[in-house]
Automatic annotation (TrEMBL):
It comes from Streptomyces smaragdinus. This is Tetratricopeptide repeat protein. Coiled coil: none annotated. It comes from the Bacteria.
Amino acid sequence: MIRRRRLIGGTAAVAVVGACAAGLLALGPGGPAGRAPAVAAPVGGGTAAEVARWMTEEFPDDPYVWAQSGRAEIEEARTTLDAGRLDAADRALRRSLRLDPTDNYAAVVGRGMLANARHAFDGGRRFALRATRMAPDRAEGYGVLADAEIQLGHYGAARTSVQRMLDLAPSTASWARAAYDLETHGRTSDARIALERAEEAAGTADEKAFAAYRLGELAWARGDVTGAEAGFRRALDAVKGHPYAESGLARVEAARGRTDKALKRYGRLVGRTPAPQFLLEALELRVAAGQGRGESLRAALDAQLRLQRAGGGAVDPHLALYAADFGDPDVAVELVRREAKRSRGVIVADAYGWALYRAGRTEEAAEQARAAGRTGWDNALFLYHRGVIEAELGEAEGVRRVERALEVNPNFSPYHRERAEELLGK
């Protein structure tokens, strides 16, 4: 059983929760007591970021107000997937630190959050360590540190950080990190308990939506379509239009044979939030269902590929997987190799291995696939990728891994499921 302030034992690691807008801490208690001005919000309210921007106009010389504005922009980037909000966050946090460069915990934590959001994990770690030195008994810094450490492949350090965070503040953010840690180490039942506690601890609509969504994803990952739907619908009850929950419901509909309904949901979703994950899911479903080549989806993904190749910034592994399966595998290798220099976590290793395999570099692919499996995550896509690679090398274990992928979640991918069944002779 999970104790209130204790992460379940065993080897553990903490990762940026979800991919789901990786690396962004939910906003929590902020700066020193008494620092936030007590004023009325603008008439009509608004998002946290909108209110925070208004506060900076009212109190332009208050470093804490600017720090909270920056962090609210990061949160808005997480929920809307609008990366442009990160530039606004950068400006606000820099302004905050100019106003108070010495005793500004909220801004230092914010800078760590921002670095992680931009996949600058070394920088995220530096800011997080600075924050934990400034305030060793405050939880937020340890969350940022855990997020950075897991992406850098420092699993033991990540576990220590998440445990410290959980000891200090058993909040939604703490329990969610504990849950991800447990899931990625194959402890799904314990991860579910941690997420249930995360949902119980939620104090805002965003926190409730996040915890419910993660419970839906955990159920989905185990092949529990009914449980997945329940989690996704609770997330949407908390936050209307929650993009990841909408994506989850589209997968549920597809798993139940309602392909047209799923594609319509995807169409609405990518129309307002054209994230690579959603575009790729929609494309795989359309192709697997024999409903054309998904030219508009390919065009949107190709455009994002060109931007990422030209920009040199953070790479979404879903784009690499798209290039590997539907485009140029050599481009996929180029992109994910670049990301692997920033992140040595298992999600990037899995994408790297698959890109190498699709590019005909099977021996190198097997090395990365093994790296992706080093935490013991019973992830159906990881199992499928590694199984196909090992089967290509004539290893009997490869076929067993593909079988296991279908046992864990027979709906893990409409596109790859057909190929898995072909390999197994079904």
